[in-house]
Design a protein that fits this description.
This protein is α+β, with helices and mostly antiparallel strands. The chain contains three helices and five strands, in the order ααββββαβ. A hairpin with a 5-residue loop joins strand 3 and strand 4 (about 90-100).
């Protein structure tokens, strides 16, 4: 029984750590590599003189128990991934966010300079 619990804990820890490592691998990749991995962004914004921001979005529908899955009429939200590309064409940072508004309503002025709180080059 102890071996099963230890094995389960090891699998969970490995899964969680590999997810973080996978996302950290984005920093330093080229814009082209990110687009191959995530697909085409729903929007691209100019980040002043610092490059650009690629916005990837998925609309998530929830059912009455507030669990993901149902695409029937009900509450929903957007899962965003903001990828900051520097002037060299490489990922300098990225961040995830959940919002209720669609990609067309993203205010570009609020995103500029926000990457200070994102995952950044170490």
């Amino acid at each position: 029984m102890k071996k099963i619990i230890l094995l389960t804990a090891t699998i969970i820890i490995t899964a969680c750590s590999s997810t973080k490592t996978e996302s950290d691998k984005w920093v330093g990749l080229t814009k082209r590599n990110i687009m191959k991995s995530l697909g085409a962004p729903v929007r691209t914004l100019t980040n002043d003189a610092n490059g650009e921001i690629l916005i990837f979005a998925d609309q998530v529908y929830t059912n009455s128990e507030n669990q993901n899955g149902s695409t029937r009429v009900g509450s929903n939200y957007w899962k965003y991934t903001f990828v900051y590309i520097n002037n060299e064409g490489k990922v300098s940072s990225w961040r995830n966010e959940k919002q209720e508004y669609p990609p067309q309503q993203i205010d570009a002025k609020k995103l500029i300079g926000i990457n200070d709180n994102a995952v950044s080059v170490k």
